[in-house]
């Protein structure tokens, strides 16, 4: 049995590589079934966000290369295209990695809380696809508990920041007074909701939410007094938008260079600030070539985010100490699984000897023997039967000079020398 975490993230790969290996949310169940059918993975989950794509797997055989091959093949990539950016974490390293990710210690924004919800979504998706068994169920439940403790016991979540917060902070550097500007938000998921919340806190009064499903856009828009539109209306709405922030799961760009170029003409050199948080990207990279457009991707948010990271470093050190302890506890539970079969076998043997002794005692009682004598004899027989095999094995180990067996027996049976 091998536990492994395999993937890429914002530290190991640029956005153009991350978008090539991202899993569309509606494709994850199918991908999980393909993964289980064509690799040694007996349990699996896929975490796919704008900053990372990871497989968390239990392998029946320690063939990590099979996972690498599946990952490459599934995304139709050559080995040299993806291999330089991939990492693998086995066993305790995989546990530590997942705990750190869930606690926000491996995020672009140190301590950001959004990733925990994304990991919970990944777990529920995998469970719904029948890809979660005993090991990963225990690992994910343990992960959720540890991440909650980290946030409770440290200041890692103080003054909460996120990619959404960083995007709004950057907008404030472009436009000093945000309340005077119109924001177009593309998408209606959790990230865009956070963006809308931060914009509202900064005084933005006019927001437009564009989404493929307009009903969902309306649900989000109602919270902030915004207007809901379809994706098809984006070209017209770009004309009035000073701030454009996008985060969808679209596999192809939604906003192209030509679309933005046409929107700029009637704006008469009024700038458009755009942040593309999505992976794959929602905005064609060529849009950055246009005058009066400030286009940023998630990778461009590093400077804003780094300032927030420094304020959380002490809390992160405390969190790492908690995780060190919790990794060892989980690995202790995992190692204890190796003893399950032996414990069951030993218990079964003891129960068989007990039943045999009890049956003999009942026969003697039925024959009219004195109950006290029957009870004493039964206890003597049961004691002898229970200790016979261990005693014989200890004598044999002593005869053969295997001192380590005797030491293990003393520890296992909590034995003390008679002279003590």
The overall average pLDDT, rounded, is 91
CATH class of the largest domain, please?
A: Alpha Beta
Name the shape in a single word. elongated
Structural class: alpha/beta
Written as H for each helix and E for each strand, in order along the chain, the element string is EHHEEHHEHHHHEHEHEHEHEEHHHHH
Number of domains: 3
What's the N-to-C terminus distance? Answer: 42 Å
Q: If helices are DSSP runs of H or I spanning 4 or more residues, what is the number of helices? A: 17
So, CATH architecture of the largest domain? 2-Layer Sandwich
Query: What low-confidence regions span 5 or more consecutive residues with pLDDT below 50?
Result: none
What is the β-strand count?
10
Brief digest:
The protein has about 425 residues and is α/β, with parallel strands linked by helices.
Summary tags:
single chain, about 425 residues, alpha/beta, Beta Polymerase, domain 2, Rossmann fold, 3 domains, 6-stranded parallel β-sheet, 4-stranded antiparallel β-sheet
Topology:
Blueprint: E1 2-9, H1 15-18, H2 28-38, E2 41-48, E3 52-59, H3 64-74, H4 79-82, E4 87-90, H5 91-102, H6 114-128, H7 134-153, H8 163-174, E5 182-186, H9 190-201, E6 206-211, H10 214-224, E7 227-230, H11 234-238, E8 243-246, H12 257-267, E9 272-276, E10 293-297, H13 302-310, H14 313-336, H15 340-366, H16 371-399, H17 403-413
Parallel strand pairs: 5-6, 5-8, 6-7, 8-9, 9-10
Antiparallel strand pairs: 1-3, 1-4, 2-3
């Amino acid at each position: 049995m091998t536990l492994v975490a395999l993937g890429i993230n914002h530290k190991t790969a640029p956005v153009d590589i991350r978008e090539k290996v991202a899993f569309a949310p509606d494709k994850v169940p199918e991908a999980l079934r393909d993964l289980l059918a064509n690799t040694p993975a007996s349990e699996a989950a896929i975490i796919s966000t704008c900053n990372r794509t990871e497989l968390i797997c239990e392998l029946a055989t320690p063939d990590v290369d099979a996972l690498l091959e599946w990952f490459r093949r599934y995304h139709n990539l050559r080995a040299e295209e993806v291999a330089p950016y991939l990492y693998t974490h086995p066993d305790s390293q995989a546990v530590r990695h997942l705990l750190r990710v869930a606690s926000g210690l491996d995020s672009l924004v140190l301590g950001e809380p959004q990733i925990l919800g994304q990991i919970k979504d990944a777990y529920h998706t995998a469970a719904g696809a029948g890809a979660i068994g005993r090991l990963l169920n225990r690992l994910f439940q343990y992960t959720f508990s540890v991440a909650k403790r980290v946030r409770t016991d440290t200041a890692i979540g103080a003054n909460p920041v996120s990619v959404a917060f960083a995007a709004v902070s950057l907008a404030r550097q472009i436009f000093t007074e945000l309340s005077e500007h119109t924001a177009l938000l593309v998408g209606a998921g959790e990230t865009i909701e956070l963006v809308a919340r931060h914009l509202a806190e900064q005084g933005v009064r006019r927001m437009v939410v564009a989404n493929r499903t307009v009903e969902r856009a309306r649900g989000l828009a109602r919270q902030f007094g915004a207007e809901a539109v379809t994706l098809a209306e984006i070209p017209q709405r770009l004309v009035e938008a000073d701030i454009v922030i996008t985060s969808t799961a679209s596999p192809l760009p939604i906003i192209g260079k030509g679309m933005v170029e046409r929107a700029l003409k009637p704006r008469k050199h009024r700038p458009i600030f755009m942040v593309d948080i999505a992976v794959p990207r929602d905005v064609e990279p060529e849009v950055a070539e246009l005058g009066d457009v400030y286009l940023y991707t998630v990778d461009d948010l590093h400077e804003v985010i780094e300032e927030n990271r420094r304020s959380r470093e002490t809390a992160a050190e405390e969190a790492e100490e908690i995780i060190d302890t919790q990794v060892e506890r989980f690995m202790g539970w995992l190692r204890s699984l190796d003893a399950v079969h032996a414990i069951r076998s030993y218990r079964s043997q003891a129960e068989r000897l007990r039943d045999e002794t009890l049956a003999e005692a009942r026969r003697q009682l039925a024959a009219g023997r004195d109950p006290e004598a029957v009870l004493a004899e039964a206890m003597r027989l049961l004691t002898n039967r229970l200790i016979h095999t261990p005693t014989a094995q200890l004598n044999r180990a002593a005869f053969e000079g295997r001192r380590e067996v005797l030491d293990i027996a003393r520890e296992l049976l909590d034995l003390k020398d008679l002279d003590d």
